[in-house]
Amino acid sequence: MADVAHLGGGEQVMGLDLVLEFEIEKGRSPDLESVARALLAWNDAVQAACAAISPSVKVVVELAGVEHGS
Fold first, then answer.
1. Nearest C-alpha neighbor of 15 from the set 66, 45, 60, 67
2. Mean of the per-residue pLDDT values for the chain?
3. Where are the alpha helices (DSSP H) in the chain?
4. Residue 2 parent element (H or E)
5. pLDDT digits over 61-70, tens only?
């Protein structure tokens, strides 16, 4: 996940990479609904944390990529 804080005019203030990892059993695929719920909860947590620190900052949470187990 990549999180980028923007000012009202779209100027990038700070770039920060945060990673959300899922532990999936080898040879299996993740359940779509579980992953979707986790991603939405992650987004809510990031938004709430940033709003608590600086209410005027807009945070964009993006899906940057997917890698199979490492």
1. 60
2. 74
3. 32-53
4. strand 2-6
5. 877 766 665 5
